[in-house]
Write the C-alpha cells for this entry.
Amino acid sequence: MNRTVELRNHSRELHYFRLRLAIGAVFVLLLFLLLFTRFFYLQVSQRDHYHTLAEANRISIAPIVPNRGLIFDRNGEVLAHNYSAYTLEIVPSKVANLEALINELSTVIEIAARDRKRFKKLMDESKRFESLPIRTRLSDVEVARFAANHYRFPGVEIKARLFRQYPKGEIASHVVGYIGRINDKDLEKLEADENLANYRGSLYMGKIGIEQSYERELHGITGFEEMETDAAGRVIRVISRTPPISGNNLTLSLDIKLQEVAEKAFGDRRGALVAIDPTTGDVLAFVSKPGFDPNLFVDGIDSENWDLLNNSIDRPLNNRALRGLYPPGSTFKPFMALAGLELKKRTPQQGISDPGYFSLPGSTHRFRDWKAGGHGYVDLHKSLVVSCDTYYYGLANDLGIDNIFDFTSQFGLGKKTGIDIGGEVAGLLPSQEWKMKRYKQKWYAGDTISVGIGQGYNLTTPLQLAFATAILANKGTAFRPHLVKQVHNSRNGKAHEIVTQPLYTLNLNPDNLTHVQNALIAVTRPGGTAALAGAGAAYIFAGKTGTSQVVGMKQGEKYVESKVQERHRDHALFVTYAPVENPRIALAVLVENGGHGGATAAPVARLVMDYYLLGKLPEEAAAKAVGEDEESAHD
C-alpha cells in the first residue's frame, strides 16, 4: 500500500494570510476615509446649511393675530366689537377615531348636537391639519375640568381667541355685515392681492357689508413671536416679539337710533329704506327688512339656522336697499315733470283734459289712468298732487325715450351710486340702444308710455331712489352716498375725516325746480296722495307716493287689492325730503306688497323724519305705522 503524505507549505499560507490582511486593512482604511470625507462634508463644508436647519428646528415663529378694529355709529355707539373667550379645539389629523373622541369628550364638557353639526360643516370647509373649534365660550369651570383630563385627549386643546360681537343684533345687519371663516376662495383672493402673509394665523375675515368692504382697515397687521423650542416642541423661551398692530376703528354716518326707529316702523312688513343727508351724502339710515342676526355667523353658522335663513320665503339675507330691483312707479313722475319743463315740452300752466286714459295717435289701445273717468283738467302741479297717469303718458310720448333716458340718468337712475359697500346693482333705465342690445328689437312708442309712469322696463333700487331724491332736494348738486364717516388710525390715534366733494351739479332752472317742489309739498297736504302722512307735521316736507305693479293685469281688468294674494299685491313707495327750506334728510321707502304708497310707505317716512328732525316719535306707535286701514288716494 502506498501512502501519500501531504506536507503543509507554511510560507505560502503566511503569504496569503498577509495578503488578505493587507486587503482587509486597505478596505477598512477606505471605509474610514469615506467616513471622514462624509464627516468633513457635513461638519465643515455644509456647516452653515445644517446650522440653519438646526436653528429652524430649535426656533419656531408663531403669528400673533391683531385685534380687529371696532365699528361705531355717528354718535359713538358700538356696532361691532371684540371679546376674548376660551374655545375647545380639535386637530382632526391628530385623531384616529374622531367620532369616538368627541363622544368621550362630551362626558367631560357638554357638546350639543348643534356643536357637532357646526364642527362637521367646518371640517368640510377646512383642511384636516387645521385646529377647529367644537365648543366656544367655555366657562372657567369647563376649562378647569378639561385641564384635569387633558392627557386623555390627544389632538384636543383649549385656546384663547378673540370673538366678534354685534350688540345690536338684527338692527343694521345688512350695513355692518359679519365676519366668517376664511375659505379657499378667500385665500385665492388674498394671494392675488399679495396680502396672504398678513393673514397667517387668522381664521376669520369680513364677508358682507362694512366688515367686507373695509376689511383692510379693520384687519390690522399681523405680529410674530420667535420662540426657542426643545426636541418635543415645547417652548423654552421667547427670543423676540413683533407686536401686532390693531385694525383701525370706523365711525359710520349711520344714526343707529334713527335706524332702530326706521326698522321698527316697518313692523313685520318686508321692504327697504334709505335716508341720506343731501348736503353731504352721509347715509343716515339703511334698512333692509327682514334682517338677520350677524352673531350667528361668528362661530360658523349651524345648518339649522342656515336653512332657516337661506330657504326663508322672506329672503332675510337679501339686501333689498342695495340689490332689490323694483319699478319706481309714480316716484318717477317728479323727474319726468322736471324733464318736461327743462326740455320745454311743457309749461307750468299748460294742462290737459283727462278722460281717464291715453291713446297713441292712430291706435285704439288705451293706456288707462288709475282713476276711472279721469281727473278732469290737469296741469303740471295737479298731475303730481293727484298722481295723474294720463298726464305722464302724454308727456312721455312727447319727450321720447332718448330724452327721458338722457335727462333722468343725470339723477343717478339706472346706474350704481358708488356707495362704499360691495354688492350694489345698477338697476335699469331703458333706452333704444339697450333694447336692441338686450332683445334685438327696436323700440316702440308703447314702450315709452309705460316708462313715463315708472313702469315697463324701468327698474331701480331704493338706494338709487334716495340718491335721486337727494339731488332734487339739493337743487341739482350730487354727493356720493357713503357709510363711513371717519377712520381712526390705531397707530397714532388720529381720526381721518371722510370729506366728500360734490360729484357734479346739474344746470337746472331754479323756477322749474320751484314749480316741482311746490307740487311735491302739496302732495303731503289735504287732497294730496300723502295727506295722511303729512297731517299735523311740524315742518314742511315734499314727497311723492308711488305704487309699483308686481303682477300685470289683463286689458280692462280692475285691480282689487283684497282679492289678490298678499305677495302678488303692488309694492308701495314714497320719496321725500325735509325741511323744504333747508333739506337735512332725503329718503326713499319701499314696502313690498304694501299696496298704496300713501297708506303704507309714507307713514314710515314720517316716523323717520319726526325722529330725525324733532328728536321724538309721533304719537302713533311705530309698530302701527305700516298697514293702516284708512282709505287713501291712489299711490
